[in-house]
Amino acid sequence: MDIRSDREYRVLMLQLPLRIGTGSRQTHQHITFYPTNISAMISFMLVLSFLMVLVSANSTTDAITCAKGAHLVVARGSLEPEGPGAMGILAEEIIKLIPGSDMEALVYPALYNEYVESQTEGVRTMNSVINNYVKNCPDTDLILMGYSQGAHVTMDTMCGASSEGFPGTLSQPSYITDNVAAIIAMGDPSLTKGQPFLVGTSEGSGIFPRNLPIGCNSIASKTVSICDKGDPYCEAGGKDLSVHLSYIKNYGEFTVGHVVKAWKSRN
């Protein structure tokens, strides 16, 4: 075929994205094809079919692996680097005591100045994470843990968001809450006075109290929210930041013991 004179000639170009690697190590590359005649086009289609099989096979590596013990979802506090944050120390201890367990650090901004936007994104992400996990692993218990903004994310995800200035959301349905063994919130800005799961010396509400604390009723028996007097975030008016930063040290052993006991009572 003379490609310079054939008016029917068309150049077919395709950029096929390929994911190389798995998980967070994936990179994306594009392969571009320019078939210039019928024979080349047939060869191109065969190659394309083969590459699509490779892409499909690669995507299966993203499938969730269900933990035989518990699956921990940990949300870090404001400005902590990506990962589980300070809570990770406790999560690792829990994993040691519940064989077959694993941990997932929630991926969200954890910003301070853009708090509402950051926290709202965290709620959306955690909602997706836990619903997807329960759908794929209905026989594995979840343990949810959050510090500071991460605690706010965790509690809004489960109770529904109802604090002033934050987009409202619904509480989780029973098929989700039934799969949760324990919830730990430390320094939660949405803590509301009178909620039955408070552990600590605080006597007030956080800086973002709930207008509808009833949304937490379905998880109250599974929840521990730790807040001490003077914490400027979980107790509005508090002025001692060191209190807010002390919970891992002061309540770490209690937290690990409580979570392990809660899991064992169900398994």
Automatic annotation (TrEMBL):
Pfam families in the cross-refs: Cutinase
tRNA-binding as a keyword of this entry, yes or no, is no
State the organism named in the record: Fusarium oxysporum (strain Fo5176) (Fusarium vascular wilt)
Q: Which residues cross the membrane?
A: 38-57
- What top-level branch of life does the organism fall under? Eukaryota
Q: Entry's InterPro entries? A: AB_hydrolase_fold, Cutinase/axe
**What Gene Ontology terms describe what this protein does at the molecular function level?**
carboxylic ester hydrolase activity
Q: Which UniProt keywords apply?
A: Disulfide bond, Hydrolase, Membrane, Transmembrane, Transmembrane helix
Give the Gene3D superfamilies listed for this entry.
Answer: alpha/beta hydrolase
- Protein known as: Acetylxylan esterase 2
